[in-house]
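Protein Entry — a single chain follows
Fields — amino acid sequence, structure tokens
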Amino acid sequence: MVIDKKEVLRYLGYKNQEIDRKMMDLVDECCYEIIDISKPSSVYEIFDIERNNDELLLIGSTLVLKDKDIKDLLVNSVKCAVMAATLGSAVDIKLAYYSRFNITKGVIMDACASTAIEYICDELQDKIMKNALQDNLYITTRYSPGYGDFSIANGAEILNVLDAYKKIGLTITENSIMLPRKSVTALIGLSKVKNFKSHTGCESCKNVGCEFRKVGGYCV
């Protein structure tokens, strides 16, 4: 696992300011600790897409996609990859500890963990892309519940379809909070035409007051 320190600093709100050695040493320490305690795992499956009136059905699953933004993402897709990834429960325990006893380190650790789970998702996305290319298909960007109008409630059905609790220990509460917290679910379209964007970006996010939206990017 690799944690991009520039991304960590972006999560922390740094915008090209000069950073003192003490701060960078603490970032280094937190990155190493997250890498040490993380037990990353992931799972994905690919389903054929069937279009039925105004809905997209993923054949062989119980997923029915009705939200406009996800249908727009998959407009040219013939298949859909359903994915989930997590850093594991030890990260949650450590973040909770530092949030009580060392708030500064807790904030930095959280930023490191957010960067780490994105790295795991990027790796899985690259794997999906390489496999798709063997079938002469191209991937879309990944799109998670909570982006745009793609309801966060879809997260529970994604985990159910993937049998994620049994396979990687990932579950979700009635309020759509994933446990472990540093986890991601997403869909990726597989299309016969190239339409990939490297990141979805903040323009799709409902959190209009977020600091990341002001500078561009994405958050976890």
